[in-house]
């Protein structure tokens, strides 16, 4: 077996195994069903004798032997077999007919009950296996590092998580049922047919084989179409998600028409895929009908010939016509289930593919609770693919220091904070915390040392207080209030209609940008992290909001360790250390005055960038700067 197929199979088995008891019950149930289905027509055999006026059943006496044993049972004598065991010889014709009809109907009732119960059981196993698979896949996706999400469309991940996990176990029970019932019926009917007439059975076998090949021939094509369909679904879902998420952009660029056209094109492209799928999927049925028609006619002709030859009794003739047709049904079902299994495997294969992806960040064992001395970047280099983004970076961040990263856009400032948070590992050099390589530290405990505020902070559509405590355990109501007070957020929150319980809308759309940033600051500091990272936390704000957020930032970085990327000079000037980055390299580092004196890029940045911003609130040093120009 090819490796991917084996893996997909393993995956499915792994998720069904916990429910093996239910599956075992199902197997027994399906076994009983198949016996009932197989026996039902044969029970009626003695009625044929009566209908044909040939009934001559011997009454059973204590010493009479069975007229037919299992070893020589065939369609010509199954009536005698049934008659002996039910002792029909002692009954009159109507009693026999009513008794057999009652047995037949009782079997149907038993079958109905078993089918209902097994269907319920089936659903339970399938839904649970689906839940387990979806849970584990989500857990796995959560454990993957950023480089996976960088190159994946969210909508596609959603589609995998929703559709493929479901598809992996969807036809499981149907498959089990068919794999038990159909072979039993084929075996049972086949046995009777072979015993009765070899020539006729050979004919039936040929027909069955042709049908099987039709199914096989089509299965590859169907499978490919299913994969195409899933791919287009995934693309559409990715597209829709993006549009709705960016609805503000769409509206402000009056791009509704543009998007409608794009969507039309997308769904238009789906049509031929659906059509092609339908062709292959439903080609099987008409082809089967033709083969079956041919089969029926041939069986009829041959059986009649055998009847005239005297090699088949009349009951045998009728039963053969019946069974010869009946055996085709389970064969068709097996062929269909083969198709279903192929579809299932296609889904399982994609799910398995995701499970196989390793997280590029692996956790070390050592737990950390604090920063004691310093974080040190030594000869750190990093590239996303082949493009180097950081090169030979040597920076020390001492406990209690505020370190500012400055440099033109694209210089690698945000990337440096990503490395500090261990979202990525450096491709060269190393980063240490108090002398220990980050790779040796427990990732979760390490990341918990940080509080992060980014340029655009998306909130979750939940009450404000839940956004502030997000992901942290053991945060009290007081902690929330305190954090909000420090973040300059308490006042506006309490003025909201529902205060801390106000829902913020999708991604926090119902609060203003400045308010969102202040909630984000409260969220970053609520667990009192020893290190803060602020990445252009005020750059997306208007002057008034900026002032409020800036005041909050100045307060929170006062007595902690902080890494600040700011576009405002006032924040940078007071930093204990300023690191000047350009094109991934550290050009210089030092205090404001030192750098002003010796670093051309820094001077340039101070002139160009910082003076354009926040000039309404110029600090002493900035004024000084201006007067010297
Ligand atoms: N996820 C990513 N995949 C590939 N390249 C990236 C990614 N993020 C950033 N980059 C590249 O890395 C470089 C540094 O980016 P960044 O650290 O965001 O700069 P800064 O924060 O200084 O503006 C840029 O050239 C950018 O194009
Ligand atoms: Mg950046």
Question: How would you describe this structure in keywords?
Answer:
10% strand, 4-stranded antiparallel beta sheet, ABC transporter transmembrane region fold, 629 residues, 24 helices, single chain, 6-stranded mixed beta sheet, disordered C terminus, alpha/beta, binds adenosine-5'-diphosphate, binds magnesium ion
| Bound ligands, named by name, code or SMILES | adenosine-5'-diphosphate, magnesium ion
Largest sheet: 6 strands, mixed
Counting helices, strands and paired strands, the structural category is: alpha/beta
* Share in helix: 55-70%
Poorly predicted tracts of residues = 614-629
Instruction: Categorize the overall geometry.
Output: elongated
Number of strands: 10
Distance between the termini: 77 Å
CATH A-level architecture of the domain at 3-221 and 283-356: Up-down Bundle
Number of helices: 24
What is the CATH C-level name of the domain at 3-221 and 283-356? Answer: Mainly Alpha
Question: Strands of the biggest beta sheet: in what spatial order?
Answer: 6-7-8-3-9-10
CATH topology of the domain at 3-221 and 283-356: ABC transporter transmembrane region fold
> What is the CA-based Rg, rounded?
38 Å
Strand content: 5-15%
Name the CATH superfamily assignment of the domain at 3-221 and 283-356. ABC transporter type 1, transmembrane domain
Question: Overall pLDDT, averaged?
Answer: 85
